[in-house]
Amino acid sequence: MKVTIENKKGLNKDLKVFIDKKTMSTHMDQRYEEIKGTVNLKGFRPGKVPKEILKRQFGKAVFGEVLDKVIKDSSTKALQENNIKPAGQPKLDLKTYGEDKDLEYIISVTELPKVEVKPIENIKFDEYSVKIDETEADKRIKEIAKNQPNFKEAPKDTIAKEGDLVAFDYNATIDDKPFKGGEGKNTQLTLGKDLFLKGFDKQLIGVKVGDEKTVEATLPENFPEKELVNKKAKFKCKITVLKNPEPVKIDDEFAKNFGAKDLKDLKSLISKQINDEYKNSLERFSKNQILKEIEKFKITEIPENLVDEEVKILSQGMSEEDAKKSRKNFEEIAKKRIKVGLVLNEFGEQNQIKVTEQELQAEVQKQIRMMPGQEKMVMDFYQKNPSALSSLRGTVYEEKILKLIKEKAKPNKKEVSKEEAEKILKQSQMQENRHSNEGKEKTEKKVEAKKTSTNKTKTKTSKTKSPVKKTKKVSKK
């Protein structure tokens, strides 16, 4: 195999690959030997069919298989031997090919640019730890207790008020006619929470056990019988139980209901939970700081084909006209994303970072745990969508790279209070929103400017007749 590099322009280059007909014939003979033992032809014993007969019978098919394999193997080898990492799929152009002929083809490839990752070790970022005051755990435990009250049977003739638990049976009608799904037994509501139908439980304030009360409510958008959605229904309710809330005693027994050994252990677990909540958010903030620093790295040239692919992703769901108007802004965003991706990938390769099958499956399990009750659906999704699994692998790969960057870079370690952490996260969110809005406004201003320019042109054109005629003649040509 002979490989010659031609037409080198920046990151774009052509590789001419030449394989002589003797080598191609050797590949053909090898393939005929492979199929000889599997072919059954009348008049010949298995494995004894002459090559000329095989050639006459299967020549075209065998050549097609050999050609595909040789091109695949030789193009991969040509790129590897010339240290070319393709940015996207290379294009192949067959020049000479055929049985008993030399093979010559051109690989047109855009290669990934050389990336310098040394500056990564000089990246500075903030690494936070949050000091949680003991009173924060107490506050959280009180909130939990408040949202999980105990109820005790109310004395006879007690009138229901907000916060009470009411149980009732009901029959509902629409225009005095019963409907499917319009019956209920022992339905329980905590008055004031408005969790059944909008405005329903407020109408039960003032009832007593044994009362019958007609409640009017509108059936919701998610009502199973679609033809009844947004219809007004009357619910005839029979009150069967009324319970009053009583304060929950926060003690060791209360703590055991949440899997803790005792109240002290529960406070420790809650403190850790609060700390982890802020820690995870602040780690995302640190990650964004690192990525912003990587955006400043210098890469001489970004492959245009990668920019085009990223712009397509950014403009998904937009009309062709809007996508065209937003292209320049999208190109800026695309180049930043690609630059970050190139730097991270190069750093990953240099440090031999890999994602094991165990790590990938652990991430799949993590996704499954995030959707309780839909475990099978999530598992089936990843099993049937290799691209989704590949995307998940990319996420794990990036997290491993960022973890190593944090170890090698220069963190500015800070211990902050809960209030300070909230302030940092709020400011970060405001900056992200401002950055997002600036990009949006930039695009909208360009669109508006084009509209204004078009309107001005129309106005000028309508004042004089001769330019209109000239314009029409030019457009026809």
Report on the structure:
Among the domains are: 2-110, Alpha-Beta Plaits, CATH 3.30.70; 150-246, Chitinase A, domain 3, CATH 3.10.50. The chain is built from twelve helices and eleven strands. The chain has helices spanning 21-36, 51-81, 134-147, 252-256, 263-295, 304-314, 320-350, 357-369, 375-384, 386-408, 418-463, 466-476, and strands at 2-9, 12-19, 91-96, 103-110, 124-131, 150-153, 165-174, 177-190, 212-218, 232-246, 410-417. The strands form three sheets. Strands 6, 7, 8, 9 and 10 form a five-stranded antiparallel β-sheet that branches. The longest helix is centred in the last third of the chain and has 46 residues, at 418-463. The two termini are 51 Å apart.
Please name the CATH topology of the domain at 2-110: Alpha-Beta Plaits
CATH architecture of the domain at 2-110, please?
A: 2-Layer Sandwich
Rg: 36 Å
Q: Give the overall form.
A: elongated
Order of helices and strands: EEHHEEEHEEEEEHHHHHHHEHH
Q: Any idea what the CATH superfamily of the domain at 2-110 is called? A: Trigger factor ribosome-binding domain
State the low-pLDDT regions, or none: 442-477
Secondary structure: number of strands: 11
Could you give the distance between the termini? 51 Å
Q: Let me know the largest β-sheet.
A: 5 strands, antiparallel
At the first level of CATH, what is the class of the domain at 2-110? Answer: Alpha Beta
Strand content: 15-25%
Number of helices: 12
Helix content: 40-55%
Q: Structural class given helices, strands, pairing?
A: alpha+beta
Mean pLDDT: 85
